[in-house]
Amino acid sequence: MVTLWCVLTLLALLSPEAFGTNAGVKVKVTQKGLEYGRQIGIAALQEKFKTIKIPDLSGSESVSPIGKVSYSLTGIQILNLGLPESKLGLVPGTGVSLSIANAFINLHGNWRVKYLRIIKDSGSFDLAVSGLTISTTIAVKSDDTGRPAVSGVNCAATVGQARVKFHGGASWLYNLFSDYIDKALRSALQKQICPLVSDAINEMNPRLKTLNVLAQVDKYAEIEYSMVESPAVSNSSIDLSLKGEFYNIGQHKEPPFSPSPFSLPPQDSNMLYIGLSAFTPNSAGFVYNSAGALSLYITDDMIPPSSPIRLNTRTFGAFIPQIAKLYPGLMMKLLVKTAKEPTIIFKPNYVTLQVNSTVTAYAIQPNTTLSPLFILNVDASVSAKIYVTGIKVAGALTLNQIDMTLGTSYVGPFQVKSLDNIFLMVLKVAVIPKVNARLQQGYPLPAIGKMNLVNTQLQILKDYMLIGTDVQFT
Ligand SMILES: *[C@@H]1O[C@H](CO)[C@@H](O)[C@H](O)[C@H]1NC(C)=O
Ligand SMILES: *[C@@H]1O[C@H](CO)[C@@H](O)[C@H](O)[C@H]1NC(C)=O
Ligand SMILES: *[C@@H]1O[C@H](CO)[C@@H](O)[C@H](O)[C@H]1NC(C)=O
């Protein structure tokens, strides 16, 4: 019994639910992306270092042959600093390493000494610190909301040379003091660097927290972009696995299908690659279909006036004589409704949608009652063009062909085939433009902060589409 229980527990642990789900969306940050990150990071660090405060130093030293010398160094300020050399590298399994070399800081301050009880002297000094090196590792993880989070580990900072130049005062004094001052200032400086580096790393987290883990799409749907596992850091990229799933707003019901595993190709000419698997649009289809949002009444006013085909019993009576006989001189109305969620298929350079729907035709009685005439099963094959607009992905559909079979007839038997052209026309002029108007508004991509996409390309590959892009933060 215990053994069985153990086995079951083990199986439960190994099941996909417990082990994390497959990603619907994958994001790859390349070396080029990291390079952009380095530039932003170094600029932030430079600002951070400007806040370095060297406290006033004072004390006394016994200096032979004059005896006790009291001194103070005050008003020390940073005049200039630079981080001319820095490198960001990937640390597989952990995150990234940041190394800074040949950094420099120039400081200015005042000195004051008192010795032999009555002699006072004062002046100013300049301190040039150079050859500063900093190295740290930034661990990249997932926080408990599925957003990326970073933390600094293993920071080390060393100050290379420090050169003090005194202004005013007696030169013999400088020599006595320069060593001491040098050491004291260096250590005051060195102590502050790693905590500031750590602060700067932690300050990236509020930015990373702006990842739209749950992005509202419209009144029906929201899309979840939380990470389903910790970021994977390899020697060439950081790879994030995101859920990429549409949900009904509020009630998160899983669709009867799940993402198939996929992996991004080793492309690296852009900063960022976003792979959206067919699962993501298919989960959208599931949500909209379940919400009843994929249905539309078509009335005659939606057919261009120039069309000889009208939605009335006269036009349809030409193909199905019973209609003209039973319902003479009436206008008609069609209800187009998906029978199940549409299925999107990504093939290299090609996107198709299989939409299985029903069309119910009604005659509109003078008292506005709808009399059903027939129900057709309409399986439509649709091709899609997908593009990126802003930080959204949008699309446009073209109807290729339809395959119709009779569901129910309320007017006796008739040849369904004879209606092919009418329905193809009606769907093309009345349904597709409505759907395209919605698709054109787009759906949010995963994004952080105020991010713009530039040099964006979209490729359709087997089972997913790949967006390669550079980013700019404003
Ligand atoms: C990067 O990792 C891959 C796979 O682990 C390995 O084959 C390759 O040699 C590594 N490249 C470098 C430059 O370390
Ligand atoms: C949808 O239509 C296609 C093409 O006619 C067909 O192969 C498929 O079985 C249909 N699916 C359902 C669930 O009816
Ligand atoms: C509307 O007219 C039809 C046909 O004349 C009739 O069968 C139906 O009962 C009427 N409905 C109402 C609500 O009056």
From TrEMBL:
Its main location: secreted. Disulfide bonds join C155-C194. Gene3D superfamilies: Bactericidal permeability-increasing protein, domain 1 (3.15.10.10), Bactericidal permeability-increasing protein, domain 2 (3.15.20.10). Transmembrane segments: none annotated. SMART domains: BPI1 (SM00328), BPI2 (SM00329). GO terms for molecular function: lipid binding. GO terms for biological process: defense response to Gram-negative bacterium; innate immune response. Pfam families: LBP_BPI_CETP, LBP_BPI_CETP_C. Residues 266-469 form the Lipid-binding serum glycoprotein C-terminal domain. Residues 28-251 form the Lipid-binding serum glycoprotein N-terminal domain. Residues 1-20 form the signal peptide. It is found in: Secreted. InterPro entries: Bactericidal_perm-incr_a/b_dom, BPI/LBP, BPI/LBP/Plunc, Lipid-bd_serum_glycop_C, Lipid-bd_serum_glycop_N. Keywords: Antibiotic, Antimicrobial, Disulfide bond, Glycoprotein, Immunity, Innate immunity, Secreted, Signal. GO terms for cellular component: extracellular space. It comes from the Eukaryota. Belongs to the BPI/LBP/Plunc superfamily. BPI/LBP family. Monomer. Homodimer; disulfide-linked. The cytotoxic action of BPI is limited to many species of Gram-negative bacteria; this specificity may be explained by a strong affinity of the very basic N-terminal half for the negatively charged lipopolysaccharides that are unique to the Gram-negative bacterial outer envelope. The N-terminal region may be exposed to the interior of the granule, whereas the C-terminal portion may be embedded in the membrane. During phagocytosis and degranulation, proteases may be released and activated and cleave BPI at the junction of the N- and C-terminal portions of the molecule, providing controlled release of the N-terminal antibacterial fragment when bacteria are ingested. This is Bactericidal permeability-increasing protein.
